[in-house]
Structure formats: C-alpha cells, structure tokens
Structure prediction request, 311 residues.
Amino acid sequence: MPGLAPPRPIPIKDRASILFVEKGRLDVLDGAFVVVDRNGVRTHIPVGGLACLMLEPGARVSHSAVALAARVGCLLVWVGEAGVRLYSAGQPGGARADRLLHQARLALDPDARLRVVRKMYDMRFGEPAPQRRSVEQLRGIEGARVKRLYELLARRHGVVWKGRRYDPRDWDASDLPNRCLSQATACLYGLAEAAILAAGYAPAIGFLHTGKAQSFVFDVADVFKFETVAPIAFQVAGDAHRGKQPAARDPVGEVRRGCRDSFRKTGLLSRLIPCIEEMLSAGGFELPRPPDEVQPVAIPEEPSGDVGHRG
Prediction:
C-alpha cells in the first residue's frame, strides 16, 4: 500500500516573514533544521514555514541545511552586521522560464518599461505619475518626494535628520536614524526578494533601478517602504532620542521586531506577489508561449503548485 504523498511547500503568503541568525551553525540534525550555538545547544527553526532566513556575520551553513532550505522554499540571504548590507542570496527551486522571459522583454522595451515605472509610481504614491516624463525624470521626481517624506517622518517623530547617509562597510559610522532605516529596509528587501524568487522572476532585472543584483528587489520594496518599515525606523529612533526606551534595549533590534509585526499586521506576504503581477501587467505584454519548434522537457517535473510556491 503506497504511503502518504510528500507534503507540498507552503505558499509564501501563508508563511511567517523573516528570522535573523547570528553566530551559530545551521545544520540538519536528526531530520530537523537547527542552529547550534558555541555550547552545542540546538534551537529548532521551522524553516518550511519561513519566507526568508537572514544570515548575519558569524553564521555558518552546512550543505544539508542549504539543500533542505531550498527544498522547502525558504530563501537564505547573507547580510552584513545588523542587516545593513545584502551580500548574496540563494535561489530555491521553482523559477519559471516564462516569467523570466516576460520580465526581460518588459525591461528591454523602452515603452513597456516606462509603463511599468509609471505603474510603480502610482502604486507607491497613490496618484498617477506626471505625463510626458521619461524614466530618468520620474526617477528624479521620486527621489525628491522620498527626501521630503524622510524629512516629514523625522519631524513627526522628533528625529534629528541630516539626510540618508551610511557606509555599508562601517556600520557604526552612521547615526542612529540611518542605522534604524538601514535595518528596516534590509528586512523589507529580504522579504521582497523571497517573493520575487517565489513567483519565478529575477531579482536583478529592474525597471526604475538597474545595474544591481537586487534592482527589481529595490523596485518592489520601494512600493511598500513608507507604508511599512520607514515609519517604524523613525519612531524607534525618535523614542531612543527622547529616552523612551530602556538603555538595555537595542534600537536596531526594536526595528527588527517592529518590522516583523508590521509585516504580519499588513499581510504583506499575501500582497507582494499580486503586486508584482499588477505592476508588470502594466507593461502590456502577455506571458510568452513556447515556440512550436522548442525541444520538449527531457525530465518532466511534478507541478509545484500555484504562484508563490517554491520547492
């Protein structure tokens, strides 16, 4: 009698958002995904129910841990101290060639790219983008609006704001508001990249941002930045400045926890992939169909579920 079928990966919209790991060894022991500290104490991580695992300096990963994370569809992201910089990310199985081709076609067509950028502007600011503007002009308009939004949040929360300045190679060189904002955006970037990969798209093929390994991650995350993580960063920085937080509490850690709670309250994981589909549909192209002369798949794979599954 055949046994039970192996469980399918959990859709990304039904997962918990992110978890940070620092100074530990990730491994698979007795069939469980665990982090082992220097004293040999194991802490179980339900990796199949996470969208993204952020690995800070001091984290080491075994081959079996990477394989299991990929199989269950949890994105591994290697970040700098306190998440200020994204160094690299794994890619769980499930990428779809049709969506990669669709995304590349939109990015390479000037008119389609402009339509996608205009849609991003609309989704980010809640109003249509100005007419007869190029991508470069819209980038400048967006940058000016973002600068004003930072200043508004700083005034609202009593933060001394000197502009967005930070050195990814020197975490302590930044002031507290910039450190809080860097941590907040790193949380959002990790989640956005997890959703992009889950849906089968490429993080590097951006529309407003280009030339970076996470260009499309920045595009997608920016739509939600001022709705979710930026207010949290300024609120925590303002509370710390006014002495409202106990001295023992780390403001950057407070930002992480605030972002985690915000992702859950806003249902961000359930919104990211539909948002990606909506912004790309503005380009006006349909998903490509395989040519008639294409070589068929040599080793068919079992269906992995709807968009948002990985594994």
The radius of gyration is 21 Å. Residues 176-199 form the longest helix (24 residues). Residues 14 and 172 are 36 Å apart (CA to CA). The chain has a mean pLDDT of 85.
